Amino acid sequence: MPKNVNAESNNPCLKEQEMSYKCLSKNNFDHSKCALYYANYNNCKEFWNKVRADRRAHGIFPHLPDVADRENIKAEYMKTKPTE
Question: Considering the entire predicted model, what is its pTM?
């Protein structure tokens, strides 16, 4: 459990952030061994920053959706995401 009770509501990428920290700790802070965790965290931040900007542009408040709504938002995005 995070020390900050609002951490999850303020940071939609809290899980990815904690995983990258755990990887660093486990690998004696060798950043090269945690590249996948960093990429995952950066992708998460990029996605939620786009969501936040889109909601702000459309006047939707709060700019970051509630924790309970985030899984649905990610699922909707995955349906419309073009395959590479």
Answer: 0.84
